[in-house]
Specification:
Rossmann fold, 384 residues, single chain, 6-stranded parallel sheet, 7-stranded parallel sheet, alpha/beta, 13 strands, 13 helices
Amino acid sequence: MQILFMVFHFPPISGGGVVVIVELANKFAELGHEVTVLTPDLEWNGEKYEPDIHKKILVHKVSTPSKSNLKIAARMCYDNMKKKGIELGKQNNYDFILSIFHPFHLVPKAAVSCGKKLKKPVLIKIDDAIYEKAKGLKNIQRKIEKVYNSRTLRNADKLLVANDSTKELINNYYKISKEKISIVTNGTDLKKFYNSKERKKRIVFSGVMYNHRGIDILLDSVQKVVKKIPDVEFLLLGDGPEMQKLQDIVKENHLTENVIFKGWVDRDEIPEFLANSSIGIGPLRSTDVTKGALPIKVLEYMASSLPILAINGTLPEDVLKNGFNGYSIENSKELSDRIIHLLENETVMNDMAQNSREMVKKFDWKNIAESIINEYKIISSLSK
């Protein structure tokens, strides 16, 4: 089977969304499919992500106006992506086109245009469905984006979302028929993540530090935990716009001995950090972005046999089952109580750790890739 995979972000750009793209492309190739990745040629000055790309994957980078400014390039990439996609489609008999949706870029729109011209089905995977609420000019911009994104999603053949919560959101916000939406989750590589027998009393967060992640709520819980368990360690992996604010909170509250900002780390180092941790921290603030989300990092915590703690309503029950593989919490006080409870009750923590590992097995990338192929086959059979 031949797949044209049209995406905006691609290595050396880093981030969870790029991990999804690379893992899916590699897994398709490992399953024997031919994959062509079509992506804008962008300048990237941030931390670089340089994964191994399967030898059967062809990567075409398309010239893009304003390639040094991602926000402008996101809106200017449409014409060249469409033109190159149609050109490649005429040279190769692709079975279907796959794209990854984000509200701010026009690659899915280009994918839909290519599909229409080439008469090939287009599947769009939606991980980030909407932005957080905005005011002023940004709010006007978001309304405009909503109009063309709604049109793009309606013109796709199938939309793939992580769970029922996102399915409802897409149905209500973009006015898309539920019949067009299927549930295909994100995944993780179970072979990369493991459990260490000598865990530290370590609570870990891994990811970009945005406000909606709620790391400040985690820091609010630290003092109470430290008083009860002085040698506890809070390890923060990653960087982001909240970094300075969070570092200031730690200094002001004299928590530098217990809170470690590791900064950006190479992706290959993450499994070892997680393996030596005790508890994984998911979203701690409930927003339009985090409700019902399925962050890659949470699946990686689970693959590393970690109990999960997250704010109530952010993670679906097949990822966080309250009292089974972790706890849904309401505030920083309950968060600190749950951390103390787990660290002081090794049997409970170990049981939850095993439950996390068992629950995550269905999220193996092989299963996710095969689910997407099956969605294409359903579309194909209905069109005959």
